[in-house]
Automatic annotation (TrEMBL):
It comes from the Eukaryota. This is Carbohydrate esterase family 4 protein. The lineage of its organism: Eukaryota, Fungi, Fungi incertae sedis, Mucoromycota, Mucoromycotina. Keywords: Signal. The keyword Cell inner membrane does not apply. Residues 1-22 form the signal peptide. Residues 162-355 form the NodB homology domain.
Length: 450
């Protein structure tokens, strides 16, 4: 029988503050977060008492509320336009953004072109060689290991066997209390990738995420195909989302997820200037498309396939990170419906920070996450992290999963699974000192639909 251990998240005072300050001052751009303001103590979040929607009935989506101005005052003149690229509303010329932009040595930025869209709105791959993939462009080749130096490599799987890396994109929102209630009851924590525009629109949703101990990360300001933006626009998408998440939650993320997985080495380089590392996935449920561009039944089938992989040996040597969404009540209903079976078929269902031994997923040192060993309830002394690391280091087997070589994300080939072979290693020191921690991995590239 699979034994599911309760997932307990520790929110503790950091014992070694110097780790964070060392990491934060490594490059010129990375002190930016220290000027952000927030009245929120992430260790003691009190949600204002307002009536929020608790149904997951699709006909009862959001009801607007006015946030309590004693908690935060969101002046629209100080923010990019909601759901528009983050340079809008004059934000590209604000004093703070100009100072940040000028603190970065753009002569070192990779000379990679800004991508374009076709007339139908999809990425234009014309002229790009997916086989040589010079720019490690995920959308073209599912590349996750940068081809230039000094860039944070992507995280895309959990190193521990039979582990489901739980992630939800596109929040926060105002009608998702039933979903968060369920996760809380089940003692599950996920990595939540929040859109900056949504954080400003629905701040109590973001506060709920922190209060419940979820791992909060960035999902850009306006959810663009990031490789189609200029350097300045990419920087603004990151910067104002960081600022918004800090204002509302008291925390500044070290991790982000590119919308549609659209990232290349130019975008990675800009993210790295802000100390941000991308978290991708190796399984995609396509849940956002249920009832939109595909059937609910098709998404349910993907869930079933991925759940089966928990026990059929697919993840005998390492785990997954699964792309799912809190975007609407359809995706949340699918999550609630499938989580019991996911827990039955996987040894561990956990957020990505814990599965990756990222004990400090934020720039602030006030909040730490459990290492994988701590999560397991093993020795929680200084040997805990190295124990987890040696376990992760043993993961070196090739894990062929439904390879669909040569297909591109836009090809329509029916594979939602990336093939990977991996080796990983880390030390607890590396985890704490570098936001770029990831088990160093070699990817056998295969087709992956997003
Ligand atoms: Zn998204």
């Amino acid at each position: 029988m699979v034994q599911i251990k309760p997932l307990l998240l520790s929110l503790t005072l950091a014992q070694v503050a110097s780790f964070v300050s060392a990491a934060a001052s490594t490059t010129n751009g990375q002190d930016y977060w220290q000027s952000f303001k927030s009245n929120i103590n992430p260790l003691n979040v009190t949600l204002p008492k307002i009536t929020q929607t608790v149904s997951i009935n699709p006909t009862q989506e959001c009801t607007y509320y006015d946030p309590d101005t004693a908690l935060f005052n969101i002046d629209p003149t100080e923010w990019p336009s909601i759901w528009e690229v983050a340079t809008t509303n004059g934000m590209n010329t604000s004093a703070e953004f100009t100072a940040l932009y000028n603190s970065i040595d753009w002569t070192k930025a990779p000379n990679i072109p800004v991508r374009t869209l076709t007339s139908s709105g999809s990425l234009d791959f014309t002229g790009y060689d997916a086989n040589t993939d010079p720019d490690c462009w995920w959308s073209s080749s599912v590349c996750t290991v940068p081809k230039i130096a000094d860039v944070n490599p992507d995280i895309y799987y959990c190193p521990e066997p039979e582990t489901w890396g739980l992630t939800y994109d596109d929040g926060p929102n105002c009608s998702h209390n039933a979903f968060y209630d369920y996760l809380e009851e089940q003692k599950l924590t996920a990595s939540m990738f929040y859109i900056g525009s949504n954080v400003v629109d629905w701040p109590y949703g973001a506060m709920r995420g922190v209060k419940d101990g979820h791992h909060i990360a960035s999902h850009t300001w306006s959810h663009p195909m990031v490789t189609t933006l200029t350097n300045q626009e990419v920087l603004a998408e990151f910067y104002y989302t960081q600022k918004a998440i800090k204002l509302i939650t008291g925390l500044t993320p070290r991790y982000w997820r590119p919308p549609y997985g659209d990232v290349d080495d130019r975008v990675r380089w800009i993210a790295s200037q802000l100390g941000l590392t991308a978290i991708i996935w190796n399984l995609d449920t396509d849940d956002w498309a249920a009832g939109v561009t595909t059937t609910v039944a098709a998404v349910e089938e993907s869930y079933t396939d991925f759940i089966t992989m928990g026990k059929n040996g697919t993840f005998a040597n390492s785990g997954n990170i699964v792309l799912t969404h809190e975007i609407n009540n359809e995706t949340m209903s699918l999550a609630l419906q499938n989580l019991p079976a996911i827990r039955q078929n996987y040894q561990h269902v956990i957020n990505v920070a814990t599965c990756q031994n990222i004990t400090y997923p934020y720039f602030e040192n006030t909040v730490s996450f459990q290492s994988f060993s701590e999560y397991l309830g093993l020795n929680t002394t200084s040997s805990a992290s190295s124990s987890a690391s040696s376990s992760a280091s043993s993961v070196a087997s090739s894990i062929p999963i439904s390879a669909a070589s040569g297909s591109s994300p836009s090809s329509g080939v029916a594979s939602k699974v990336s093939s990977l072979s991996s080796t990983s290693s880390s030390t607890s020191g590396a985890v704490k000192l570098s936001p770029a921690y990831i088990g160093l991995a070699l990817v056998a590239v295969a087709g992956l639909l997003i």
